[in-house]
TrEMBL record:
It comes from mine drainage metagenome. This is PilZ domain-containing protein. One of its GO terms (molecular function) is cyclic-di-GMP binding. It holds the Pfam family PilZ. Residues 12-116 form the PilZ domain.
Amino acid sequence: MASVNIQGSHAQQRRHARVEIALPVTLIVPGLELVVPAKALDLGGGGMRVSTRTDLPAGQHVVLRFSLPGDEERQLLVRGRVVLSFYDATAHLYAHGIAFTQYSAQDGTDIARYVASSSEPPRKP
């Protein structure tokens, strides 16, 4: 399976459109044998914002496992790095901005297609 390495700064990656989303995500922290349940709050071609009960430091490498709405049978595996981490006192959860660093070509295409279809204005009949 071919994979895509994503290079560039956080600012460059944020140029991707993002859409609000609510779906379960599993964060896996390589080397620590840590599996963290999370909830995706938004998704874009360059990253994802998640909330969780676990604090993860900026710079932490993670693997995200999730399914896109409408294709729950297919699991995507995306490598990423925590670029922003803070405690949301209102929700009593940690929020993490995760920049994607590597994913398969198919996963990248599926994410881009989902974001594009979710951010298009509704068509008039």
